[in-house]
Amino acid sequence: MINRVTHQSVQRSTLANLQLNLSTMADLQAKMSSGKKINVPSDDPAGASDMLRLRGEQRVQNQYKRNADDGNAWLTTIDSALQTTSTTMRRVRDLVVQSGSGAMNTPAREAIAVEIEGLRDELLQQANTTYLGRTVFAGTSDAGVAFTVDSTTTPPTYSFTGAGSATVERRVADATTIRVDADGAKIYGDGAQSVFALLDTIAATLRTPGGDATAQLNTLDSRFETVLTELSAVGARQTRVINAQTNLAESAQTTKTQLSAIEDIDLAEIILQLGMQEVAYQGALGAAAKVLQPSLMDYLR
User: Fold this and answer.
1) Between the chain's N and C termini, which has fewer beta carbons within 10 Å?
2) 146 belongs to a structural domain
3) Cα–Cα distance for residue pair 176/181, rounded to 1 Å
4) Which of 87, 103, 105, 69 lies closest to 178, judged by CA?
């Protein structure tokens, strides 16, 4: 049995093929202009699902990177403050040892006492170091300073206003958090046990005739050791943060490569396909021109 083919069926088939060719060419042009294989989820549902998952991973990695960068800045600020503190305390120790010389007269001892009081003020300033308005030695406290001084008393009274037990932490991985602050009360002491009160005691001893400030050297050395210990701890935590930054950079590059493999086009391949499709479309147009234009004269011939 032979199926009957009419002009109308030929026209419909030709127009459908033309539309299919044009649609394919439009799709290739859209991919080439956007540079992406997947412009809408229907282009590749499975690929779109993977792409959304990878973009979610990128957002998480970016947040961890911001956390690590912020944590590194905190620890760098603390390290700088503690380095300055250690230098200041070393100078104080040198002055105390110098004052132990029995040949020093009263004006010389007074000059040393005045310099030590100046160094005390520098230590207080270092203990109140801030980063972006946050005190790095006061935990989560919002008091604005880690230490306050009441100058109305004799000697002055120093108080720690931070929250030493409420630490500041930054999450740099799914299961990794790193402390980025430091306990000011542990480093500088509190109240009468603070390094500031210690320096006031040393200055007062120097102003006392026959006073021996070198008796405070052991206490001063103990405070100095505490600063050095905290410096080591901060360095270890900063190393962890730097390692986390390195790992995050590598993970971000891997995720970017995976995402590119799913959604980015092969430009050379797309250009080749588009050229072939254009040739096919032009050929289809030529064939359709002969099929869609029969007239009565064509039948009479």
Assistant:
1) N
2) yes
3) 16
4) 69
The two structure tokens encoding residue 204: 């007062």
CA torsion 226-232-235-241 (nearest 10°) is -90
| 98 pLDDT above the threshold of 80 | yes
Across-strand partners of 163? 139
Q: Which two tokens stand for residue 273?
A: 């396909």
> pLDDT at position 179, please?
95
Asked whether residue 156 is assigned to any structural domain, the reply reads yes
Contact 205, 216 (CB under 8 A): yes
**Helix, strand, coil proportions of the chain in percent (round to 5)?**
70, 10, 20
- Residue 55 backbone phi and psi in degrees, to 5: -65, -35
Whole-angstrom Cα distance, residue 167 to residue 173? 18
Residue 57 lies in a domain: yes
Other Cβ atoms within 10 Å of 188 Cβ, number:
28
| pLDDT tens by residue, 106-132 | 899 999 999 999 999 999 999 999 999
Query: How many structural domains is the chain composed of?
Result: 1
**According to the model, what pLDDT value does residue 22 have?**
73
Q: 3-class SS at 2?
A: coil
pTM (two decimals): 0.79
User: Within its chain, how far is the Cα of 11 from the centroid?
Assistant: 64
Q: Do the domain assignments include residue 32?
A: no
Percent of the chain with pLDDT strictly greater than 70? 88
224: containing domain: 52-257
